[in-house]
Amino acid sequence: MSNLLKDKVVIVTGAASGIGRSIAISAARHGARAVLVSDIAELPCEGGTPTTQEIDALGVTARFVKTDVSKKSEIDALVDAAEEFGGVDVMVANAGITARDDGADVSEESYRRVMSVNLDGTLFSAQAAARQMKAKGKEGSIVLMASMGGIVGAGMTVAYSTSKGGVVLMAKSLADALGPDGIRVNAVAPGTIDTHLLRTSPGIAEAAEGFRKRTPLRRLGKPSEIGDAVVWLGSDMSSYVTGIALVVDGGLLSVI
Ligand SMILES: NC(=O)c1ccc[n+]([C@@H]2O[C@H](COP(=O)([O-])OP(=O)(O)OC[C@H]3O[C@@H](n4cnc5c(N)ncnc54)[C@H](O)[C@@H]3O)[C@@H](O)[C@H]2O)c1
């Protein structure tokens, strides 16, 4: 499709399903040399072929690496796996979850689980990638998956929004810390994207139709539209862009 990611080694967490799967496939379509598909399970949440098979079919090398992003040791092993291909150039910390009982009374267990995946996992992914990039003198790109829920609050997603707001400031803070090494760090903040997470998260699923109607483009987003944004941030086309939260929402945040 293009050579925007030519010769780049790309890691995507949460890449079995939804947005992560689309990002991994987009990376392959845009010339990546190798794509490491990381997730807790290899099969997409909704079934279908594993992401690695889709990428193999494009003639690009793909590896599935089973990783629970809330465990630092597993992320370190994931990034070590990129050594085989010369090290990671683009790290996409995409894995994220919602909580079934989110809201003002979210349980301690759910709150901690959301934070451990959405915040801890995102930080550990960025740290491990940056460490390897610095060791190899690579001017890499790190993309963190935030959400429109990390820019505006919502009573039904207290834990989730808190975690995603943290991701936005994590990107800004890491951009400052890693910029002198030539490493860029940005967040992407999707609006309502048609995925398993959107359709199965209580509160969010019911609100989706209302969001669609209020969205200036009058439709939900496609996972591939987040993939396109991430490819741009991973590529040299965005070489002077760091510390931003790129909103990809069909215009929704501009009008609510
Ligand atoms: N769908 C939306 O509307 C939307 C909007 C804004 C932000 N996001 C964010 O986009 C990202 C992807 O969401 P999605 O809609 O594709 O969801 P999804 O549920 O379809 O996919 C998420 C993937 O993450 C994996 N995952 C869950 N816990 C993990 C863990 N501990 N370690 C590794 N992988 C794990 C799951 O197995 C799954 O494959 C998330 O960070 C989500 O918060 C989604």
UniProtKB/TrEMBL annotation:
Protein's name according to its UniProt entry: SDR family oxidoreductase
Annotated transmembrane regions: 141-160
Domain of life: Bacteria
This protein's UniProt keywords: Membrane, Transmembrane, Transmembrane helix
Keyword Zinc on entry: no
Family as reported in the entry's similarity comment: Belongs to the short-chain dehydrogenases/reductases (SDR) family.
